[in-house]
Amino acid sequence: MAWRRWVSACLAQTDDPALLTEVLDIASQSIFQFATDSVEALRLAGLEDHAATADAQALAAIELIVGGAPIAPELAEAQLGYRLARRHTALILWTATDRPGLDRAVEQIARSPIGHGLLVAAASVAARWIWVPSGSEDELLGCLGGVDGVQATIGRTAYGIEGFRTSHGEALAAQAVLIRLGSPRRVTRFADVELVDVLTRDREVADTFVTRTLGELAQADRTLRRTVLTYIQCGFNTTRGASRLYAHRNTVERRIARADALSATKLDDNPAQLAAALLILDLRDQEER
């Protein structure tokens, strides 16, 4: 009805087809944008039912907590609108290309069974800091699928204001590992890259470590390296490793023998060191795929 009245009013003012086309085009675009903004506002209002979104005061409190500054838990809770005397799992989401995807990822977590009562802080236009008060690292891994263009790192679950701080610090450290190595891995737990974090803080030292540990294996086919890493991660169980790699057991055994012949560090001598070097290369390999 309103649109008809607007068209009638325009026709009463002019009979110039070009001018009418321009005026009606601008009006239709304005109506479309209003509808789009209204839908987005309703979506965000629904999201707020599930999550506390940090305002400027809450962001200041977060900065104090994660920076290790002394702050009374009661004061921090009042500023955050979020209870600290419980277990927290921190994660960081960021994107270089898909900011709408970042919001979809946050919404996906908020609407999951473990997302009720989470705290979300906009660290930047392309990054979100999140604390989930329920659920485990594995449950978070399960609800982070399906959103392309967004990377996530997860800290260990920990208790209280100190747990709020340390879990976030671990998620930050895992993010730093991926950035240092140029890895596009979508979801990473700090527990899986803790040793790599220590080894890669100095890129030159990390490169030397990999070369010294792996020898010729460092330049070998990535399938060979991935087989050895998976074999170690599966507790040196060939059957489990073959299942995870979707390969025949005999194929896995041949690859392991070939890799061991190339490696400067033998599997029987120092599997932990070998696994660390292979994991560094595995994270880098993903950049090239």
TrEMBL record:
Q: Name one Pfam family in it.
A: GGDEF_2
Q: Which residues form the PucR C-terminal helix-turn-helix domain?
A: 224-278
InterPro entries listed in its UniProt record? CdaR-like_regulators, CdaR_GGDEF, PucR_C-HTH_dom, PucR_C-HTH_sf
Gene3D superfamilies registered for this protein in UniProt: PucR C-terminal helix-turn-helix domain (1.10.10.2840)
Which stretches make up the CdaR GGDEF-like domain?
78-176
Q: Which domain of life is it from?
A: Bacteria
The record's family statement is: Belongs to the CdaR family.
What is the protein name stated in its UniProt record? PucR family transcriptional regulator
